[in-house]
Amino acid sequence: MISIDKIDQKFVFILAAAKRARQLQGGAKPLIQASVRKATRVAMEEVGAGAVPFEVPPMEEHSADGKEKKPKSKARKKT
Fold this sequence. Notes:
Elements lengths: L9 H16 L13 H11 L30
Helix pairs in contact: 1-2
């Protein structure tokens, strides 16, 4: 089994492996020598080995009432 001690959140591991599996299914070459053939398992092994770079997306900000803050947009007047 793959050790995910290197990754803080299992959800991030799953997202990274899923994206990599789609790349492998689309024809990308494996980055490591894997003992399995399924794209999902190869992707999990690659992420677990640290061969696939990924970033944790920033958290969305929420206001005090729990609603998501929307970015301010500049409104333009129609002329």
